[in-house]
């Protein structure tokens, strides 16, 4: 029987889809990239924003129509939206066969077999204690691996649904993670990315309450095949001096940190239940930029959070100008049912004001991006080719500080280290040409 998985949302969802695919293949099922020929369709959903959730609903409707051609088609829904909606999805969509949670992904084969026997159900059991490095996976890349090291989040930002859909923080044992890194090393993988809703909180639940992401990076750097070590997503107040020092000194550690700030107004940050001030955040950014040469930092911003005034917005603009991020993910505030903000705060910033502020930040960030990218014009940079970037043999790759470069190449060089000379810059990617193919690095 063939299965198809549709993934929405973050890199953790992608990693969980890789795990589900690996488990199903190991159990005799066959992967297909064509939902029309699938006997089993699994939707791995996201609930961070309303737009992502609406995509899930659209997918349910679209795949549900396939049951008119194949009455034996099985449709399962997992991920954060499934955790949030639970049994309501079965009540609302009659063509769904089963719904499962964010903490029992590794039970996917049993869930599918139950559905094949005609059972229609929702299962939100917690199987995280059974997660280990030996679980089969089907990585979607041949040179880069996602590794989830911590599940859940304890921060409870007032706008965020994640703590309610992912549960409390739970770190995987460090030896188990290192065993997984070793497996990827044996298979010739060159890059790994450690994942978590709050990745630099890793290990704080072990007893001594000390984060251990720095130790993970140090241990992982000992493997020869692994050349780059990334991590995401960070929480500002959990970044330690030891982590900064490790990134600065360990040549395999990526010189890039995604550090969401959300707002530059202390009043709004407090209302969001973000546990730092604007001043503390800027000081942290300056410290990172000072101690890690050529580091790049990206961030997240929400415009139009309840009661955000023009003065609050100006504080955010000021922070962006001072921090000069590599990239910003910008979103207009939208209430998420089940959050504190949805329950207690009035969504009182007009839609057109939210959008106006979003557009202003986008234009400001484009200007900053172009100015920062101009520093690379004419330089030759070392990158790993990731894959296609468009038509006509256009490919892309990244530097160790996450600068994206587009160039002419061939598919056989995917996963290869290349030296690329930058001939053109834009507010987005850099553009260049291959100067050298590096066999050993």
From TrEMBL:
EC number: 2.8.4.3
Main EC class the enzyme belongs to: transferase
Annotated catalysed reactions: N(6)-dimethylallyladenosine(37) in tRNA + (sulfur carrier)-SH + AH2 + 2 S-adenosyl-L-methionine = 2-methylsulfanyl-N(6)-dimethylallyladenosine(37) in tRNA + (sulfur carrier)-H + 5'-deoxyadenosine + L-methionine + A + S-adenosyl-L-homocysteine + 2 H(+)
Keyword check for tRNA processing: yes
PROSITE patterns found in the cross-reference section: MTTASE_N, MTTASE_RADICAL, RADICAL_SAM, TRAM
Alphabetized Gene3D superfamilies for the sequence: Methylthiotransferase, N-terminal domain, tm_1862 like domain
Residues the entry annotates as binding [4Fe-4S] cluster 1: 10, 46, 80
InterPro entries registered for this protein in UniProt: Elp3/MiaA/NifB-like_rSAM (IPR006638), Methylthiotransferase (IPR005839), Methylthiotransferase_CS (IPR020612), Methylthiotransferase_N (IPR013848), Methylthiotransferase_N_sf (IPR038135), MiaB_methiolase (IPR006463), rSAM (IPR007197), rSAM_horseshoe (IPR023404)
Stretches assigned to the MTTase N-terminal domain: 1-117
Domain TRAM: 374-436
Principal subcellular localisation of the protein: cytoplasm
Source organism, top-level taxon: Bacteria
Cofactor section: [4Fe-4S] cluster
Alphabetical keyword list: 4Fe-4S, Cytoplasm, Iron, Iron-sulfur, Metal-binding, S-adenosyl-L-methionine, Transferase, tRNA processing
Subunit structure: Monomer.
Listed name of the protein: tRNA-2-methylthio-N(6)-dimethylallyladenosine synthase
């Amino acid at each position: 029987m063939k299965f198809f998985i549709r993934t929405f949302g973050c890199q953790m969802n992608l990693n969980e889809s890789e795990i589900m695919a690996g488990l199903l293949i190991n159990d005799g099922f066959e992967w297909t990239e064509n939902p029309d020929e699938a006997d089993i369709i699994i939707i791995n959903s996201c609930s961070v924003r309303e737009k992502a959730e609406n995509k899930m609903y659209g997918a349910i409707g679209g795949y549900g129509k396939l049951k008119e051609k194949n009455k034996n088609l099985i449709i399962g829904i997992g991920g954060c939206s499934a955790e949030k909606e639970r049994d309501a999805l079965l009540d609302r969509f009659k063509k769904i066969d089963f719904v499962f949670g964010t903490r029992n992904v590794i039970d996917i084969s049993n869930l599918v077999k139950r559905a094949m026997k005609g059972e229609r159900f929702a299962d939100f059991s917690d199987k995280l204690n059974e997660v280990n490095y030996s679980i089969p996976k089907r990585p979607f890349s041949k040179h880069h691996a996602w590794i989830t090291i911590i599940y859940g989040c304890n921060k409870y930002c007032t706008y965020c649904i994640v703590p309610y859909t992912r549960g409390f923080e739970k770190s995987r044992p460090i030896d188990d993670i290192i065993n997984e890194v070793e497996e990827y090393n044996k298979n010739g993988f060159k890059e790994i990315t450690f994942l978590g809703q709050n990745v630099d909180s890793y290990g704080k639940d072990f007893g001594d309450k000390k984060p251990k992401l720095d130790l993970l990076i140090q241990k992982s750097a000992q493997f020869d095949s692994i050349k780059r070590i990334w991590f995401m997503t960070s929480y500002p107040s959990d970044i330690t001096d030891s982590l900064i020092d490790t990134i600065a000194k360990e040549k395999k550690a990526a010189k890039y940190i995604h550090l969401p700030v959300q707002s530059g107004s202390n009043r709004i940050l407090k209302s969001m239940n973000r546990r730092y001030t604007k001043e503390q955040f800027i000081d942290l950014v300056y410290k990172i930029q000072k101690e890690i040469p050529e580091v790049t930092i990206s961030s997240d911003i929400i415009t139009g959070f309840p009661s955000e005034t023009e003065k609050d917005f100006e504080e955010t603009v000021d922070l962006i100008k001072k921090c000069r991020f590599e990239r910003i993910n910008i979103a207009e505030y939208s209430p998420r049912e089940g959050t504190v903000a949805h329950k207690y705060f009035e969504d009182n910033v007009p839609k057109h004001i939210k959008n106006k502020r979003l557009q202003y930040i986008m234009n400001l960030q484009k200007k900053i991006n172009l100015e920062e990218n101009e520093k690379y014009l004419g330089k030759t940079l070392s990158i790993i080719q990731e894959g296609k970037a468009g038509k006509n043999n256009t490919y892309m790759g990244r530097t160790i500080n996450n600068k994206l470069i587009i160039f002419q190449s061939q598919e056989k060089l995917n996963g290869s280290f290349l030296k690329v000379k930058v001939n053109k810059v834009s507010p987005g990617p850099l553009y260049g040409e291959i100067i050298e193919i590096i066999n050993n690095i």
